[in-house]
Amino acid sequence: MMSSQVSPLTSTPMLPVNNLSISTPPSTPSKLRHSFSSSSSGVYHSLSERTHIPSHVYKHPSAILLELCTSLQELRQIIPLVIKNGLYGELLFQTKLLSLFCKYGSLVEAVRVFESVEDKADVFYHTLLKGYAKNSSLEDSFSFYCRMKYDDVEPVVYNFTYLLKVIGDNSDLRRGKEVHGQLITSGFALNLFAMTSVVNLYAKCGRIDEAYKMFDRMPERDLVSWNTIIAGYAQNGHAKKALSLIVRMQDESQRPDSITLVTVLPAAADVKSLRIGKSIHAYVIRAGFESQVNIATALVDMYSKCGYVGIARLIFNRMTERTVVSWNSMIDGYVQSEDPKEALEVFQKMLDEDFEPSNVTIMEALHACGDLGDIERGRLLHKLLDRLGLGSDVSVMNSLISMYSKCKRVDIAAKIFEKLQGKTPVSWNAMILGYAQNGRVKEALSHFCKMQSQNIKMDTFTMVSVIPALAELSITRQAKWIHGLVIRSCFDKNVFVMTALVDMYAKCGAINTARKLFDIMGERHVTTWNAMIDGYGTHGLGKAAIDLFKEMHKGAIKPNEVTFLCVISACSHSGLVEEGLKSFESMKKDYGIEPAMDHYGAMVDLLGRAGQLNDAWEFIQKMPIEPGITVFGAMLGACRIHKNVELGEMAAMRIFQLNPDDAGYHVLLSNIYASASMWDKVAKVRTMMGSKGLKKTPGCSLVDLGKELHTFYSGSTLHPQSNQIYGFLETLGEEIKAAGYVPDTNSIHDVEDDVQKQLLNSHSEKLAISFGLLNTSPGTTLHIRKNLRVCGDCHNATKYISLVTGREIIVRDMHRFHHFKNGTCSCGDYW
Fold it and tell me: Cα(829)–Cα(39) distance, rounded to whole angstroms?
């Protein structure tokens, strides 16, 4: 045997040893190699002399103390006693010291012991390799393995099991295959322990098919082998295969243990199979495992992910022992079940029971605060995470950014983002989505472009964050640009990215393009169907929405609560009252979905728009839950359309009780009074708004032209072409009057007739249309985006403009699309 002091990290010639490339002459990694200095007599025995160890050595107090040693601190106190008694040269003490230093993770001292021995027994190499595998890097472990080969140490099976584990943990497939080859040439190809390690290696490297081939060739398998392959399939996203192996395992007379169950319960959760989950739960009870905290925690997680958070809570409450992971699972269960309030209740209970939250706990609690929009508790969590020392945890800070964004404080989120060290793609995604959710489209796109310029890798989440922002701009040019980027980035096979594109094209007015993308998708999620149905609804294509909903029934994907909301809204925009009523009834009767406040609001809108105001009010009175502001808001909007003062006042009174500071509802009531020429009440509403500091949202319309977005406000003269625009609009006004247009001045009062007409001509969408006509060639379709509902006069005028100019004009207002062409609108004057 030889011991070299040359570091394997230096550049030296390579020699093949049994087809494995190693450095020569290799040695223990230099950063851990030291000489073990001793103050003893320096007497060392040769290997042959140390073969026979006198019995008194075993009985020496130092030997007994080493056997009883329980920590690195104790070990360091015993060493001087060993040296003082001249026992350090004994094989027993050298072996025990090396083993204990490795056990307690002090490789520096383990290497000192190893290098101080002249004639090293093979067991020294085997012990130190185990120490490297458990306590050091893959590079150091592999280097020491090469040292063993160079020193002609005959490998034992455990050398390969330890080494393969550290290689698998680092997902180093190339080195794994090299060691696998060495294992075969060393005669361990049929060894149970070695081949189980090989199975684990390939599974950890994502090569589950190769892992299964190795598993299938094993002449014998034990429980560990089965657990390894089952975990491999579960962790590589093949939950169904993992579950099927449980059946095969029992057919081959292997009884699942607690490790098997902890592995397979998440697989049942992944496929959301309550039936399988319950059968595993039954086995847990029969096998007497229900008191084990890790299994009970896995059951909590499984039931929560299968949608039965109530059962999960029962199991959680019965647990006699809980870990932080148990609390995290319960909190996450409520968050995923869209019950953030209860999630925070459990979080508070956890704090009350003196459990210290982990980073995962804080992230879940922040998620709950964001879903609730609870900025106050969010701020308290911010202070707590700082006290816990989690301010440098990037994942936690990403959650903090998301929480502030959801709570409408994207300004605070942006400050956190700017100060964040070590930003990840998730950080960028959170900030882009935060801006998009808060209507800050330009900032969202700016961050997306900055992300690209800094060569930060985009992923599917980046795309599903930025695409909705572009959808809000409603610019076809931008839609095509991002679509091209999706294709070039190879994200066009991802169902969520494609769903976002379908939604984006629908919101850009290109409903036919949206349908083409929908049709070519190989995989569709329920959100995909919802996006397409909602797209048809906002374009006033109610029948197409109903037909698509019927087509959805033929497939395996079941509608959810959002699907029904989209269908009822589509019926509302198209006056399909009977179809809407049927869908609402089917929701609970056929699918067991309880209507939420938004569904009730959509039903009131459906009946109200159709002029069935008394039925709508009666519907509100019979609601099984207390009506919210969305319900009364829909009622007030319907009263505005149909000029019903009495019901409008009743709806408005309830709204002001719920949310007295929303200017939009005050304006609606004022318009109802104005239509009825009740000027004293109009003045009263205006005075009320003034006393509360409320202002009407100014009308704003946008048109995309020449790669630039032009913005127009009602009555504004700030645009460089204002003189031409107003001049052209006056000429256009005469043309459409000649074609039959009559200005509707009902909504404008207290001014002279000529002033009324002037105010009507300065509405933002008319300015945007005039600008578009002036600056585009004949036949070009105009796309206009408006922040408010299109008024009756502008709607009528735009129909005539499309007639006299021969242009198609697409207007997207706050509720829906209007396609004007040849003097008609796609809404059929029903909006």
Answer: 101
